[in-house]
TrEMBL record, chain A:
This is Proteasome subunit beta 5tb. Pfam families: Proteasome. One of its GO terms (molecular function) is endopeptidase activity. Keywords: Cytoplasm, Proteasome. PROSITE patterns: PROTEASOME_BETA_1 (PS00854), PROTEASOME_BETA_2 (PS51476). PANTHER family: METALLOPROTEASE TLDD (PTHR32194), PROTEASOME SUBUNIT BETA (PTHR32194:SF15).
UniProtKB/TrEMBL annotation, chain B:
Keywords: Proteasome. It comes from the Eukaryota. This is Proteasome subunit beta type-2 isoform X1.
């Protein structure tokens, strides 16, 4: 399908009217591959694929019943007869103001962070997945690479984040094939934000920090990265200043953008997301400078995640660290913070016995 | 603050993602109008277009919870300020404010506003409002972006730091 797209075998996609409200222009394609077949596949296969043109916004409109009914009943209720009655031309999401019947509590606890500095972008996260007050997985990867120069930290519902990261990776790859250049981090953030917008008001919870390096392909000479590039805001139309600066330094350099399923999209130099983020922020705010070296940056990131896991119950286990540079991302060995905890405990005890202080720190 | 055209600004506050989504949607449509027809929408037309869109979405599955101020300069009508709230009520007003700050500043504007204010007097009036916010508003808002629209377009003014006194 992607190959057909790129080779132009199909007629050029006729994008539906962007000014029309989303619900009126929903054009389904053969999307059995999207959900891996199964009952979802049956649901979609009864539709005739109208157009081959892809529009990522309308692609992912879920069937409204799937949102209101409990996911446990998916296999059991006879869906096909109901679906034919639904007006497929105007599918709309039911407006859910309170949570529907959820069979289990969703998991949101985590500590992730990302910041830019002169040597690139650091993305770090803990690895604990919690669910209903218990640790569901002590070794889950929360920093997912999206493409060679873009890495995304995930926070919120683990399943949602994993799925949307994959969808984003696919859309970015398609963009790269069609336009022969990588989409910038800001562009990827905007794409993700627009893809998540139809799900606003549902239980979808994704809070991702996209950390990437924007640059031209095949460019070996490294210009010195100015801090201003990392700090320019996305709404550069309103300020001619930032437009000029980004034009001068080119579309290159480290970039951190925060996207969440509420629809918020923020560009900045430093972000931390999750239940452990306040603890991480206090370490990062004191330690992050633009001119720091890569080792310093990695140390600060590790320390911030460690402190957050120390205080936050929903963060813990290991820390994953990714460093994105002009040459792509590099991953550090996953480190178990248990060691660090015991090392620190020893250090404290040594300090205690050395000082013979009145206050005892257990 | 979103620049709709050379002489129109849209200020948008409200729910997290809705503000940017709605404002950018309006912004792009206004620019599309200019591309298609060769001339820009007037502020009154842009305000009514925005209101219509907001009203259409209001009773849909996805209402936009945003409060807007649309400011523009028209060649024939002169400067105009349009107040719009999330229920898509539209009113042309000499001065307006949204949010909790409105409770504090509207009476100052009532007291001191005159239609024939000079530019310096208008900036002073704005500073008066910001000082009141600094004194009585519970959140500390360190600085404000100020823009001026006149017949020559949109001008950035210096950021007003609150609490200089």
């Amino acid at each position: 399908m992607a190959l057909q797209d790129v080779c132009g075998l199909l007629e050029p996609p006729l994008f539906p009217q962007w000014t029309a409200p989303l619900s009126q222009s929903f054009m389904p394609e053969d999307s059995t591959h999207l959900f891996g077949g199964g009952i979802y596949g049956e649901a979609f296969s009864s539709w005739v694929p109208r157009r081959s043109g892809l529009n990522p916004l309308e692609f992912y409109m879920p069937i409204s019943e799937y949102i209101t009914k409990s996911p446990i009943n998916f296999g059991q209720t006879p869906q096909s007869s109901n679906l034919l009655d639904v007006d497929h031309m105007h599918p709309t999401l039911p407006y859910i103001s309170q949570s529907g019947a959820l069979p289990f509590t969703l998991s949101h606890g985590t500590t992730t962070l990302g910041f830019a500095f002169q040597g690139g972008v650091i993305a770090a996260a803990d690895t604990r997945s919690s669910c209903a007050g218990k640790v569901a997985c002590p070794a889950s990867p929360k920093v997912l690479p999206i493409h060679s120069h873009l890495v995304g930290t995930t926070s919120g519902t683990s399943a949602d984040c994993a799925l949307w990261k994959r969808i984003l990776a696919r859309e970015l790859r398609l963009y790269q094939l069609r336009h022969r250049r990588r989409l910038s981090t800001g562009g990827a953030a905007k794409l993700l934000s627009h893809m998540l917008h139809p799900f606003k008001g549902t239980e979808l919870c994704v809070a991702a920090t996209l950390c990437g390096w924007d640059g031209d392909e095949d460019q070996d000479n490294e210009q010195p990265m100015t801090e201003r590039y990392a700090n320019t805001t996305l709404t550069s139309k309103s300020s001619s200043q930032s437009a000029a600066s980004s034009g001068l330094s080119g579309v290159r350099g480290p970039r951190v953008v925060y996207v969440c399923s509420d629809g918020l999209r923020l560009q900045g130099a430093l972000f931390s997301v999750g239940s452990g983020s306040p603890y991480a922020y206090s370490i990062l705010d004191g330690g992050v400078r633009w001119g720091m070296s890569a080792q310093e940056a990695a140390a600060v990131a590790r320390e911030a995640v460690y402190r957050a896991t120390y205080r936050d119950a929903y963060s813990g286990n290991n820390v994953d660290l990714y460093h994105v540079t002009a040459k792509g991302w590099r991953r550090r060995e996953r480190e178990n913070l248990k060691e660090e905890y015991y090392r620190e405990k020893e250090r404290r005890e040594q300090n205690n016995t050395g000082e013979k202080s009145i206050h005892s720190i257990k | 603050m979103f620049k709709l055209s050379e002489k129109i600004l849209l200020l948008c506050v409200g729910e997290a993602g809705d503000t940017v989504q709605f404002a950018e949607y309006i912004q792009k449509n206004v620019q599309l109008y200019k591309m298609r027809n060769g001339y820009e929408l007037s502020p009154a037309a842009a305000a009514n277009f925005t209101r219509k869109n907001l009203a259409d979405y209001l009773r849909s599955r996805t209402p936009y919870h945003v409060n807007l101020l649309l400011a523009g300069y028209d060649e024939t009508d002169g400067p105009g300020l349009y107040y719009m709230d999330y229920l898509s009520a539209l009113a042309k007003a000499p001065f307006a404010a949204h949010g909790y700050g409105a409770f504090l500043t509207l009476s100052i504007l009532d007291r001191y506003y005159r239609p024939d204010l000079t530019r310096e007097e208008a900036v002073d009036l704005l500073k008066k409002c910001l000082e009141e916010l600094n004194k009585r508003f519970i959140l500390n808002l360190p600085s404000f972006t100020v823009r001026l629209i006149d017949k020559d377009g949109i001008h950035d003014m210096e950021k007003l730091p609150v609490g200089r006194k």
